[in-house]
């Protein structure tokens, strides 16, 4: 044990989970582990769920949450990294089964790390973070189906959230016409500033939701919502279109039929950013580096420090979050 590590920790107290700001001793490295001076993390919906025992997001408490981080290597027992390297980490067990990004000093397996692209700053990396990584995977799923901007409109649900907001900026960079759906009717200006050409309500997406097949409206969709929203989207996707599904904010059950799949050849692609193979991650981060060059990141970013995390958790739980919250862990 050595030195002191400032962190935000969740602990179990009966049926409740409470947060506290602690000073804990730094731990030593095992083989293939890396010590990272954390510069930034971010707040994601999954992080907020970690503070609720009933969510079962966390394997066991106490734990330092934060499912992503960026920082600088200060010590390494992994052959791929050395002191001074700038790195980024998302997913795997970070902030779920192993202490995550809400600390000044993190120790984690080197196999969870990706070298930061040279034209992407440590802060920009966490403006994107897990949400941006998920959005980028969603865009890749659409592009891999051969869908082009001239093929039609792309729907983005949960558009004011992290995945939705960043997906809009990415699709804009690719030249797509974007329809943004949100339950926050007062955020039209925000969504258009990001790149949406049209903004509709979540109720507009759910209209005629009982139809097994509806009018062909969108060639593709990025959906971090799921539930009834997904069922309605599937019925409105055009021939050989695709839906990239990455979330469950709208529920886990989907009441749909086979008709979108067998009459229109619609593809439903599940997006998993947690276990995505490490050998493929560098490519996705290179795509994010490209997206970041022209994106209006200031519009969607708010910076906080470790002491403000619980307040932001509350905003997530009450659906008051717009854009991205970046956590500054170190100067």
- How would you name the CATH homologous superfamily of the largest domain? Medium-chain alcohol dehydrogenases, catalytic domain
Q: What percent of residues adopt helix (DSSP H or I)?
A: 25-40%
Number of separate domains: 2
Alpha-beta content class: alpha/beta
Average pLDDT, to the nearest integer?
A: 94
Q: Largest sheet at a glance?
A: 7 strands, mixed
What is the name of the CATH class of the largest domain?
A: Alpha Beta
Computed CA radius of gyration, to the nearest angstrom:
20 Å
Strand content: 25-35%
Structure summary:
It comes from Saliterribacillus persicus. This protein has ten helices and 15 strands.
Describe the structure.
With 331 residues, this protein is an alpha/beta fold. The chain has 2 domains: 2-116 and 298-328, Medium-chain alcohol dehydrogenases, catalytic domain (Quinone Oxidoreductase, Chain A, domain 1); 131-270, Rossmann fold. The protein is built from 10 helices and 15 strands. The protein has helices at 45-49, 122-144, 162-173, 188-194, 202-206, 227-236, 259-263, 278-292, 297-300, 309-317; strands spanning 2-13, 16-26, 33-43, 68-76, 86-90, 105-109, 114-115, 154-156, 178-182, 198-201, 218-223, 237-245, 267-270, 301-305, 324-328. The strands form 3 sheets. Strands 3, 4, 5, 6, 7, 14 and 15 form a 7-stranded mixed sheet that branches. Helix 2 crosses helix 3 and helix 2 packs across helix 8. The longest helix is centred in the middle third of the chain and has 23 residues, at 122-144. The chain is globular and about 60 Å long. The model has no long low-confidence stretch (mean pLDDT 94).
């Amino acid at each position: 044990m050595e030195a002191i590590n400032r962190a935000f920790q969740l602990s179990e107290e009966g049926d409740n989970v409470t947060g506290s700001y602690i000073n804990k001793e730094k731990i030593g490295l095992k083989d293939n582990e890396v010590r990272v001076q954390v510069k930034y993390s971010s707040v994601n919906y999954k992080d907020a769920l970690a503070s609720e025992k009933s969510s079962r997001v966390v394997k066991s408490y106490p734990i330092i949450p934060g499912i992503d981080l960026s920082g600088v290597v200060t010590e390494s027992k992994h052959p791929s990294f050395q002191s001074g390297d700038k790195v980024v980490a998302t997913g795997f067990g970070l902030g779920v089964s192993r202490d995550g990004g809400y600390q000044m000093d993190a120790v984690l397996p080197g196999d969870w790390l990706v070298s930061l692209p040279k034209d992407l700053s440590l802060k920009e990396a966490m403006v994107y973070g897990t949400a941006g990584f998920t959005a980028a995977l969603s865009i890749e799923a659409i592009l891999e189906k051969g869908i082009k901007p001239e093929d039609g409109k792309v729907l983005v649900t949960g558009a004011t959230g992290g995945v939705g907001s960043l997906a809009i900026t990415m699709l804009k960079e690719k030249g797509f016409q974007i329809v943004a759906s949100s339950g926050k009717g007062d955020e039209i200006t925000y969504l258009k500033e990001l790149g949406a050409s049209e903004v509709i309500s979540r109720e507009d997406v759910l209209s005629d939701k009982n139809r097994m097949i509806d009018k062909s409206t969108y060639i593709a969709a990025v959906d971090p919502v799921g539930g009834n929203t997904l069922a309605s989207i599937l019925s409105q996707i055009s021939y050989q279109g695709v839906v990239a599904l990455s979330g469950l904010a709208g529920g886990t059950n989907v009441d749909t039929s086979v008709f979108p799949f067998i009459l229109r050849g619609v593809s439903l692609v599940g997006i998993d950013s947690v276990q995505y193979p490490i050998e493929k991650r560098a490519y996705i981060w290179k795509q994010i580096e490209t997206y970041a060059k022209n994106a209006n990141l200031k519009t969607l970013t708010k910076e906080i420090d470790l002491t403000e995390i619980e307040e932001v958790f509350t905003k997530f739980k009450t659906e008051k979050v717009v854009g991205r919250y970046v956590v500054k862990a170190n100067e």
